[in-house]
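Hi there,

I know you've been waiting on this one. I reran it after we fixed the sequence typo, so this is the corrected version. Both the input and the resulting structure follow.
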Amino acid sequence: MSESALCPRARLVIALVLAFGIAALKGLAVLALVVLLAAGVALASGQTWLVLRRLRGVALLALGFMLVLPLIVGESVLAQIGPLAVRQEGVEAGLLIAVRLLSIVTLTLALLAPLSPFQLVGALRGLGVPALMADLAFLTLRYLDEVAAELRRAQLARRLRGGRGAGWRSLPDHAGTLATGLIRAQARSERVWAAMRLRGYNTGLAMPVAPLRILDWVGIGAALVAALGIIWLDRVL
């Protein structure tokens, strides 16, 4: 799926529809189908490696659910490992939560990763989201970009000055770098906000929203059918 295949508004609607459909799953019967759907969308997006890189933190969180829930949820003991008991209900709950989480994040990244913050905010406004909320989302994304850029510059400067590397002893240095980056990013964000106001921001003008094309409607319809089909199969199987 190329970046020009679907408009940003259609991509956002498809991501929301599929996310709600997957989040409504209550059983394990259709998890394999959900995994195939998420993998197929990721492959079709052309952003597979980007999606995999950004999934690392989410994968650790999903792994935590799969390791912790079997030890604390349920009563049917599958195995006893010393003082720890692995329970069937916990295994099923951990697997369900982990697969739903990874699938939703994979689909969201695959569909929205090609979009710039401007396109994403434009899509939100096109869906009728209040301008204040859309602008807050845009400014949040901009602030996060500024924080990341400031942290990269601070870390590079620290290394060039002979700063200590990774390890427990370098935690104070990393904490100071993080604090400095946050303060500088906040100051830069305030300057950006002042510049926006001076250039006429919040004057009530908005760019016209382009209508959805046939391909966009087809994509939204396919996502709706897939989401309803997944929910129906989950209920009948």
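Quick highlight: The chain has a mean pLDDT of 81.

Best,
R. S.
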